[in-house]
């Protein structure tokens, strides 16, 4: 089994920065591919950043250049550094994991394990 626990969410003004974390425990080998998703009220879950088995990354167009995904394998923690935040970035942010992938994926159906989410609110 895999447990994913997000933290670091909060409120920030537009233009600010925030870093959210996802601590991984359990069967670590099932989390070789990971990603961050977000969901705003009334909207579908959206993949924003993903990291593959070799550390290669992928981003959605809406966050590319502003968000950075990284993974500390020694600490079993996934990060999402968010900069130049906009009100439209307001959402619940979820981390997700899968045991393998051909490439970093932003598709929700490619992931088996999910955290409970952490709220990020950006005010104008």
Descriptive notes:
The protein is mainly β. It has no helices and 11 strands. The protein has strands at 2-7, 10-13, 18-26, 33-39, 46-51, 57-59, 67-72, 77-82, 91-98, 113-114, 118-123. The strands form 2 sheets. Strands 2, 4, 5, 6, 9, 10 and 11 form a 7-stranded mixed beta sheet that branches. A 4-stranded antiparallel beta sheet has the order 1-3-8-7, with no helix packed on it. The mean pLDDT is 96.
Largest sheet: 7 strands, mixed
User: Which band does the percent of strand residues land in?
Assistant: over 45%
Uncertain runs with pLDDT below 50, 5 residues or more? none
In percent, how helical is the residue content?
Answer: under 10%
Mean pLDDT: 96
Helix and strand element order: EEEEEEEEEEE
Shape: globular
Secondary structure tally, helices: 0
Any idea what the radius of gyration is? 13 Å
Entry keywords:
124 residues, mainly beta, 7-stranded mixed sheet, 51% strand
Please give the structural blueprint.
Blueprint (H helix, E strand, L loop, with lengths): L1 E6 L2 E4 L4 E9 L6 E7 L6 E6 L5 E3 L7 E6 L4 E6 L8 E8 L14 E2 L3 E6 L1
Parallel strand pairs: 2-11
Antiparallel strand pairs: 1-3, 3-8, 4-5, 4-9, 5-6, 7-8, 9-10, 9-11
In short, what is this structure?
With 124 residues, the chain is mainly β. The chain is built from no helices and eleven strands.
């Amino acid at each position: 089994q895999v447990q994913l626990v997000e933290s670091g969410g909060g409120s920030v003004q537009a233009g600010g920065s925030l870093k959210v974390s996802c601590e991984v425990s359990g069967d670590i080998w099932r989390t070789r591919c990971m990603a961050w998703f977000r969901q705003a009220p009334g909207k579908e879950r959206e993949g924003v950043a993903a990291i593959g088995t070799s550390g290669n990354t992928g981003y959605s167009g809406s966050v590319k250049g502003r968000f950075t995904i990284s993974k500390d394998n020694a600490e079993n923690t996934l990060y999402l550094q968010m900069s130049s935040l906009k009100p439209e970035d307001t959402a619940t942010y979820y981390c997700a994991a899968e045991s393998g992938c051909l490439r970093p994926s932003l598709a929700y159906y490619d992931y088996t394990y999910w955290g409970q989410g952490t709220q990020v609110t950006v005010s104008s």
